Amino acid sequence: MKSVFDIARSHITLPVSKDGSALRQVLRDWLSYSERVPLQKKPAFPAELSVTVYAPRGGTPHEAQIARPLRYTRRVPLLLWTAVLPWEVQRGLSMSLLEPPEQDTVEEGVRKNLRIPLGMTARLLSRKRRRRKRTHLGL
């Protein structure tokens, strides 16, 4: 049975984009590793997920970091069972809700009960900008 590192190495070294049999071999190795090796026998790797959300202020991301924007950071300890995050985990992380917990630091007046799905932030912020423009223009 090949280890995760051997499978990843073969995925990199074999010409999987040009040779269909090499691609099938790598996929068979991943399938056998993920289905036949028990979870307890897979190597564990300590990791930490850090999520930082910046309020858009215009300009480049570098300028936004210098200007000390509204920011919420949360670190979530993880224990990865493989060297590579499976696509299910990546998909789950991209669809997760960002909720500031009671004990974490929330800077500059961000409400503690804020629950915004990642895809909704742009829409909500554009609504706020439109409201500000209306009030500024006296509408």
Q: What does it look like?
A:
The structure is a single chain. The protein has about 140 residues and is an alpha+beta fold. It folds into 2 domains: about 40 residues, no CATH class; about 90 residues, no CATH class. About 40% of the residues lie in helices and about 15% in strands. It contains 5 helices and 4 strands, in the order H-H-E-H-E-H-E-E-H. The chain has a two-stranded antiparallel ribbon. Strands 3-4 form a two-stranded antiparallel sheet. The radius of gyration is 22 Å and the shape is elongated. About 15% of the residues have low confidence.
Would you spell out the secondary-structure blueprint of this structure?
Elements (H helix, E strand, L loop, with lengths): L3 H10 L6 H17 L8 E10 L6 H6 L4 E10 L6 H8 L2 E2 L17 E2 L3 H17 L2
Antiparallel strand pairs: 1-2, 3-4
